[in-house]
From TrEMBL:
One of its GO terms (molecular function) is chemokine activity. One of its GO terms (biological process) is immune response. GO terms for cellular component: extracellular space. Residues 1-26 form the signal peptide. Residues 33-89 form the Chemokine interleukin-8-like domain. InterPro entries: Chemokine_IL8-like_dom, Interleukin_8-like_sf. This is Chemokine interleukin-8-like domain-containing protein. Keywords: Cytokine, Signal.
């Protein structure tokens, strides 16, 4: 049986694969195929989910946040606000 969390994570992964652009103000760190750069700036939109991206080829270690409006942002994984938000979303 599939849990709601598994379905949500699967949908987020699908959104990440399909996403070509994002919109927002967090230093314009918009999400493309993978995060090649990250932002330290706190996201002002309501965050509803996240995904961890590990370094591979051109992709960097990042936390990818999904906002209520569907935007995806690449954030620096060791920023205090990022770690706090991840704990809140668990």
């Amino acid at each position: 049986m599939t849990t709601c969390g598994t379905v949500t994570k699967s949908l987020l992964l699908l959104a990440v694969v399909v996403a070509l652009t994002g919109q927002g103000s967090a230093a314009d760190e918009k999400f493309y195929k993978c995060c090649t750069t990250v932002s330290r700036e706190e996201i002002t939109e309501t965050i509803v989910d996240y995904m961890v991206q590990l370094r591979k080829k051109n992709c960097v270690n990042a936390i990818i946040f999904q906002t209520e409006s569907g935007n995806l942002y690449c954030s620096k994984h060791d920023e205090p606000w990022v770690m706090t938000k991840v704990r809140q979303l668990r």
